[in-house]
Amino acid sequence: MSARFALDLLHPGHVADSWQDWFVGPQGARRLLIVAGVCAGVILLVVITLVLPPTFRLSRDQGAIPKLRVDLATRDGNLSLLRQDLQALGVEAKRQVRWADILNAFRRQTPPTIKLQKVEAGLSSAPAAPPPGQAPVPTAATGGGELRIEAVTPLRAGPPPLLEIASLMGGLLKDPAIDRRYRLKSWELKQPGGGGSTVGEGAQLQVLITLSEKPR
Question: Which of 16, 91, 168, 188 is the S-S candidate for 6 at Cβ 3.0 to 4.6 Å?
Fold first, then answer.
C-alpha cells in the first residue's frame, strides 16, 4: 500500500497543504467565512444593480396606472366633445354652403323689377284634419321643409306684372341649387291696402312664394 504526499521546500519541516486542506485545515473555517462573505457581497451587488432598479420602476409604473386611467378618461371625454364640435361645424358648414348656393340662385334669377324682402326656411305646416266621418285625403310625401319667399314689385297701371313673377318662379325652379332640393308648393299675390284699384306712386304688389322640400 502506498500513499502520496507533497513536500514544501520553502518551509522545511512542514508538509505542503493540498486544496482540500485549505478548507478543512486549521484556517478552513475562517477561509470559508471569507469566501461566503465575498459571495454574499457579489450577490448583493448583483441584486442592487440588476434587480432593484427594475423592481422600483415597476412599482412606480403600477402606482401611476390609476392616474393614467383618469387622464385617459379625461382625454377621451375631451376627444368626444371635440368630435361633436367638429360634426356640428361640418353640419353648419354644409348649411352655409347650401344657403350660399340658394342666395346665388336668387341673385341670378330675380328680375330687376322684383325686390326680395324675406327668404326663410322652416318646417311645413301640418295638413288640416278632415271633417268627421271623412277619410283623410292622401297627399304626396314631402321632406318636411319649406322655403318661403316674400318679394314686392311696383304696382303699375294695367294687369299685374305676371311675366316678371313667372320669370322669377321659372328661373328658381330651373336653377340647379333650387331644383335638386325644392319644388313649387304655392304662390300668392297680395294687393296693397285700399283694394285692387289703388294705384299710385310708391304702391307695391306683394308676392308670396312657397317651395316645399323634395322627399329623399
Answer: 16
38 and 104 both lie in a single domain: yes
Whole-model pTM: value is 0.51
Cα separation, 200 vs 157, whole angstroms: 9
Residue 94 lies in a domain: yes
Cell 321643409 sits on residue: 145
* Residue 85 and residue 111 in contact, taking contact as beta carbons nearer than 8 Å: no
SS3 182: strand
Count of C-beta atoms within a 10 Å radius of residue 172: 23
Tell me the CA end-to-end span of the chain in Å, nearest whole number.
Answer: 117
Strand order in the sheet with 115-123: 115-123, 145-154, 204-213, 182-190
Query: Taking a C-beta distance cutoff of 8 angstroms, is the pair 189, 150 a contact?
Result: no
8-52 pLDDT per residue, tens: 565 555 555 666 666 666 677 787 888 889 999 999 998 888 888
In the block, cell 444593480 appears at: 49
Give the C-alpha separation, 90 to 65, whole Å. Answer: 36
The amino acid present at 116, given as its one-letter code, is L
